[in-house]
Write a structure and sequence with these properties.
The protein is of the alpha/beta class. It is built from 20 helices and 13 strands. Pfam families: PGI (PF00342).
Length: about 550
Amino acid sequence: MSIRETQAWKALEQQLEGGMRDIHLKTLFQQSPRFETFYLEAAGIQMDLSKQRWTTEVREGLLSLARDAGVPDAIQRLLSGERVNRTEDRPALHTALRLPREAQLEVEGVDVVGEVHATLDKMETLVNKLLNGQWRGATGKPITDVVNLGVGGSDLGPLMVTSALTDFEPDDVFEVSTHFASTMDGSQLADFLSWLNPETTLFILSSKSFGTIDTLSNASTALDWISTRLGGDEALIKRFHFVGVSTKPEKMTEWGIDPANQLLFWDWVGGRYSLWSAIGLPIAIRVGMDNFRQLLAGAHAMDEHFRTADLAENLPVQLGLIGIWNVNFLDIRSHAVLPYDGRLKHLPGYFQQLEMESNGKSVTNGDAVVDYSTCPVIWGEIGPNGQHAFYQLLHQGTQPVACDFIAPVNRYNDVEDERFRDDLMAQHRLALANCFAQSRVLMLGDDAVKSESTPPSYMRYRGNQPSSTLMFDSLNPATLGALIALYEHKVFVQGVIWDIDSFDQWGVELGKKIATETEEIIATQSGLDSLDDSSRGLIEAIWRGQTSR
């Protein structure tokens, strides 16, 4: 049965048609105080949902929908290691990656916690070797630069976290810089290789399957780059200059990764959920293993809240439910992520993959085509930059957009120079003022400013654009971990209600298969007749362009 046929869904539709479709946020704020009603806090995250276009009655209806969809039971099944990834018939146990050492979790006869911490311990050994200046390349010089070769979840998560936590690089360690190359066209790698020293560069091959063509093509280029410049035994170069992170030890060994340089994770870790695993090696190199463990601890705190809190007080559940209301009832299918902290510049891109690869589905777990909308389009930018780019559309455009404003309460408090600290803290106050002002104008429109005259139409603000505001005391490993886990669980809650599998990604597979076949046609110049007219024309244009030079 479709979720639309449940009594809870029909009751929400009745509320929508009974006045909620057209009511303005300014009216809701005139009717009663809202902040205390729609404010929640847990695991270091503060969340204000009062600027969303809902009421306590709508919230109760959404809670009924969640119960009808089996959300409470689904939470326990996820966290206990049941096979919630149905199409691949396996658990989705990213939460196990952040369980403390003393925890106990046995899944299908395997001590998951023991295996996780064994990998973390090996990871710590490698990290300490690098940060102590003890990892030396083939010519005996210490490694100074590490390049992560990965794509998707093997790139976006580590890149986002290392950028966010630059203030937490450890002191009194040997300086090792981290870099990221993901594009299959080689543009990022070509840039790095133009100035890196092959004698002091280490590459991390991060690939769950160890068969991703993007990563392996970059790895082949990197190997040729070092071999050409250093000469010598290729096997020796692989031993001193390459680390592998994968679920496939046999493939890493076949490629030539020394077993001592192999870090493993498990099939039950989805790529976009893998930064908590050994895929997070670049994070640990950048911020040290202690801070990496704090990242895990922050996520675990949110996991525990998700597991134990009542649905009405549960941050991931509430954030997920307001998304359901916006998408399926208010018909808002665009969602902007707007961090007001420059260190979170990669957060919108990270959430794009997390949400759209997880819930960008149109077939239910029962193999039926959905008759309702699922994941909205996720996009965004650092808030102050977005104000000068696309906020025009948010305020005066023709389509509704739900927004998440994200900001730390405190920043720069530990800057030693008093005058410099005051200047920077003033800038942070300015960022917070803009964050709150933008959400206020999106909510109230023209009524945000009292005026005795009516402005011309081109200066009017309609308001009624819903938003959530999420804050934390300061951006640190623990609060960032909790924030990411909050969104992971929000995605899961929505997937349960939409009755879709949030942990597979079959939609990315066909394009990769066709790309392999197409590359063969381009390289061999045979098989063109099997393609459509457009593809044939494009490939022939490539041949003409490349052979004419």
